Amino acid sequence: MTTELQTLRDQIDDVDKSILALITKRLALVTQVGEVKSQHGIPIYDPKRETEMLASRRKEAELAGVSPNVIEDILRRLMRESYNSENDKGFKKVYTGQGSIVIIGGNGQMGRLFTRLFTLSGYHVKALGSKTMHQAADVIADAAVVIVTVPINKTEQIISQLPPLPKDCILTDFTSIKQKPLQAMLNQHDGPVVGLHPMFGPDVPNLAKQIIVYCDGRESQKYQWLIEQMRIWGANLYPIAASEHDKCMSFIQALRHFTSFTYGVNLQTEQANLEQLVALSSPIYRLELMMVGRLFAQDPQLYADIIMSSSENVDLIKRYYQRFGEMVQLLEQGDKAGFIEHFNQVTQWFGDYAQRFIKESQSLLKLANDTRP
Predict the structure, then answer these.
(1) pTM to 2 decimals?
(2) Which NCBIfam families match (predicted)?
(3) CA distance 115 to 103
(4) What's the average pLDDT block by block, 10 residues per block, for the chain (373 residues)?
């Protein structure tokens, strides 16, 4: 039995080596694709091509008696690596005029990410920080774009202290709230203004499929090249009014982060045994615990600023607190019928999204289980 098993394992090892050789060949082809895209200004992410390719491979897998989901999982992982390879080849420079890219907060993590992207696209990038802001007038004198990416609580102050910008210079910011910073930029600069919000952290390897929100400020025709440059980097650009953006962020960021914060405080106060929670967790709870733990591995000042950035956020959280209390009353009263009624109302409100989210979450649950020690 041992000899037979070893023979089979040796054959599997040979197949694995063949798979590795094919992956190496595929990545080499992807490198060539990246060079062509760079020359012609084609975005690294092509959703139509990706969808069609995955659909074809799934059909072929099914005909071959292989699970289509297995092939899709493999290909998606390869595509993530492919986007990294394409990213390293640089990008076409959209802007044909003169001028540099000035990033205020350029030495921060997000500033460094965009410095790298602009540099890969052939732009001259300058950074300003707290120790060099006294040089701002000289640094900004030839700017084509000025980007403000500093902590939320300093953004408006920094904008108000900017020296006069060149007439056609684009003024923008990366703040996670938009109404107040956008108004501050409009007050400070008479030229083109747009508010940007990258919906990702600075640790992303590339911008493929990443969302960047943009809120119109002034002279949209003059900042369209900047939007197009980000599309070439692979990002999905989503236009929205600043007021609507901030309403959405109250749910996406403020309420979500506060809920995770409160849950973490409760775990700590109750002295829950984290080692046991991890050992006993289902994949879905493991994901939830990961998201809570992720919050507490980051800068508390950042999350305090996000949650407390507006009175609207506080009002929303207070309403959530009230509803939480109402749901607790159902439990105290043993009102199972009331619980089920609320459950069904929310199910109806979610509509088709409920089933969609079940499907989308399945791959995340598999990944959470795969990474379990």
Answers:
(1) 0.84
(2) CM_T, PRK11199.1
(3) 8
(4) 88 94 90 82 86 93 92 88 72 93 95 95 95 94 97 94 96 96 98 97 90 98 97 96 96 96 97 95 91 94 92 96 97 97 97 92 79 72
